[in-house]
Design goal:
With 396 residues, this protein is of the alpha/beta class. Helices cover 39% and strands 15% of the residues. The protein contains 13 helices and 12 strands. A 7-stranded mixed sheet has the order 1-7-6-5-4-2-3, with helices on both faces. A 5-stranded mixed sheet has the order 8-9-12-11-10, with helices on one face. Helix 5 crosses helix 9 and helix 12 packs across helix 13. It is globular and about 75 Å long. It starts with a helix and ends with a helix.
């Protein structure tokens, strides 16, 4: 198996996704690892039990199934260790709790995932942590926001709903000069299209609910750390007693095998639709980092290897009073795009993005923001469905 491991280091991404995370010969040659359920784990003697000097000690600390997924994620991330948690939001909250304390100051990008903002503005503040939001375009200028007690910089690129890119290497360099931990929610790109730890990030966060699962039926989060921060992340996770279930880990492992191929289709279809929308009447702007017209396209082109299937566009409206009515008319006319939260599955989804919580990166003024998750359907059918939406919106 060692020969195979060395070959995989330089293999193509789909080859790696097919083989990482488990050795079939650990399980009598079966290509998928078994689902091992556990709470209690027995020890051979009292000394081993006292020192916990065996690989598995209790169900919350992992089973062979969850370990296989962690190994696969580490191979993709280049990380020293990975924890599994029950959701993408838990993947954000655990490192916040693990690396901050009462009296600390943390910097959070203003284009952050809405539930992350809610956690910061409620629970984190109740615990005595001061949260300050910053402009996603700030880059190295973030240095002006640092204080002696700044402990965390939370990044997300591209930003939720409006897809602003961040200069992650520049921000990371500044943060490290001040002794702060850099966290990144990298769910949009996955480690296939961007590896945060290679760009200075300390803690890489993913909602495996999205592309690793790929089928809209699993909730799971992963948090991966570099060597400097792995032990503290692992300790925080153990103290909180939060863990991913082996059944879910098994399903995510299955999803990983086809993720590269699925992402290629999502990328290709979404970019096709984004380019089509740019030239269409009734669209004020298209918010997709891979478009040359996008303000921070140069950062995406410099740092990322691809784009996923989610982006937004601004539905043109002559007055703010018509924003909601036009957005609802557009959405209600759709028949192939479903109306639903989340993304990363095989099906296309749409929603009216709520940006009322923004402090600095304010909502566009030209019209409502419609977010599209472009699934695996045929592009011609998706375009026809969007046309139905435009026809209904134009009637408002």
């Amino acid at each position: 198996m060692k020969d195979k491991d060395s070959l995989l280091q330089t293999a193509g991404i789909n080859t790696r996704l097919t083989h990482i995370g488990n050795d079939p010969f650990d399980y009598h040659g079966f290509v998928n690892p078994p689902v091992v359920h556990a709470s209690t784990v027995l020890f051979p003697n009292a000394a081993t039990m006292e020192k916990r000097s065996q690989k598995y000690t209790y169900g919350t600390r992992g089973t062979p199934t969850t370990e296989a997924l962690c190994d696969a994620i580490d191979a993709l991330e280049g990380s020293a260790g990975t924890i599994l948690v029950p959701s993408g939001l838990a993947a954000v909250t655990i490192p916040f709790l693990g690396f901050s304390a009462a009296g600390d100051h943390v910097l959070v990008v203003d284009s952050v995932y809405g539930p992350t903002r809610h956690f910061c503005d409620t629970m984190l503040k109740r615990l005595g942590v001061e949260v300050e939001y910053y402009d996603p375009a700030i880059g190295a200028g973030i240095e002006g926001l640092f204080r002696p007690n700044t402990k965390i910089v939370h990044t997300e690129a591209p930003g939720s709903n409006t897809f602003e890119m961040q200069d992650i290497p520049a921000i990371s360099a500044v943060a490290h000069r001040h002794g702060a931990v850099v966290m990144m929610d990298n769910t949009w790109a996955t480690p296939l299209y961007f590896r945060p730890l290679d760009h200075g990030v300390d803690i890489s966060i993913h909602a495996a609910t999205k592309y690793p699962s790929g089928h809209s039926d699993i909730l799971l989060g992963t948090v991966s750390a570099n060597a400097e921060h792995w032990e503290r992340l692992k300790e925080a996770n153990g103290a909180l007693g939060i863990c991913g279930a082996p059944d879910d880990a098994y399903q995510i492992l299955r999803g990983l095998r086809s993720m590269g191929l699925r992402l290629e289709r999502h990328y290709e279809s979404a970019l096709d639709i984004a380019e089509w929308l740019e030239g269409r009447e009734g669209v004020a702007r298209v918010l997709h980092p891979a478009l040359p017209s996008f303000p921070s396209h140069n950062i995406w082109k410099r740092d990322f290897k691809g784009a996923s299937g989610i982006f937004s566009f601004i539905l043109a409206a002559e007055s703010p009073q018509k924003f909601k009515a036009r957005a609802h008319a557009f959405l209600d006319a759709l028949r192939i795009f479903g109306l639903g939260y989340s993304w990363g599955g095989f099906e296309s989804l749409a929603l009216h993005a709520n940006l009322n919580d923004r402090k600095i990166a304010k909502a566009p003024k030209e019209g409502p923001v419609i977010r599209l998750q472009v699934g695996l359907e045929d592009v011609a059918d998706l375009k026809a469905d969007i046309e139905r939406g435009f026809a209904a919106a134009n009637a408002v």
